[in-house]
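User: Predict the structure for this protein chain, please.
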Amino acid sequence: MKRIAGLLIAAGLVLNGCVAKSEPEPAYQAESFPLAAASWPLQSLLQNLHRQLSPDPDWLPPEASGSTQAAWRSLIQVVNPQPRMILAYEPSAAMRRELQDYDTLWQAQTIGYDALVMITGSENPVDSLSLDQIRDIYAGKITNWKQVGGLDQPIRIYAQDENSGLQTAFERQVMQGVSIVNPTLDWFYERAGVVRQAVAAFTPTSDALGFSSRLLVSQVNPSPDLKLLRVNGASANAKTLENGKYPLKLPVLLASNTASDATIAGITDWLLSVPGKRWLSDQGLFPTQ
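Assistant: Here is the predicted structure, written as structure tokens:
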């Protein structure tokens, strides 16, 4: 996207050889930050982005709480006619249909990568699973940890809500069209006289297997009771995601419901610049190439 007038250069421009290399790189500042929302694991990223680019350091995102589905739904202009942006994981197929049903013209740019990580309880002796093993476990072909080098106990699998960005990524990258069998469910109170079954929140026991965002479990909500499993023998880090040894990239998208808002275009432009990529790395994301 082209650089736009809505962004002001906050530091002096480096002129052809006239400034020493130790001078800080230019930083960009948005005069007016747009309406914005984020997937829950990316809320702190959105808040820090505002603090980085906005003159108002005390801003709190009014729509930052909620699911990936809620973030994408905020782009529907029938409900919210103003230009807005979101930081989110990929939308589910159902969410894409909903956007289409409301004739929402949206666009998205990958600004960096999180990692989809497999998690278990810290006391589980298993440290690594292959992608094929994970698929077979969630398909019901492997049902006991002993089959993958662990203790002789049934594997309790956990999934996410069907419209979750993490569930969407897991189904696309891991299951590849194979159905998930028997995830752990709980009964939930919905309203007076009505209860329903839904996916259960992950419990970090030695028999549990689930998936999450690396950003969420390592920075936003870390727990000593969790173990991150290697996948295909590789841990998730910048090097293994870049060279493909870690197979589960989780794209982080900056999406908007307009192609003409100068400030949103400028923020996207800055995040794809060298200083912006460095900033994203400092926030725990892996930059794009």
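The chain has nine helices and 13 strands.
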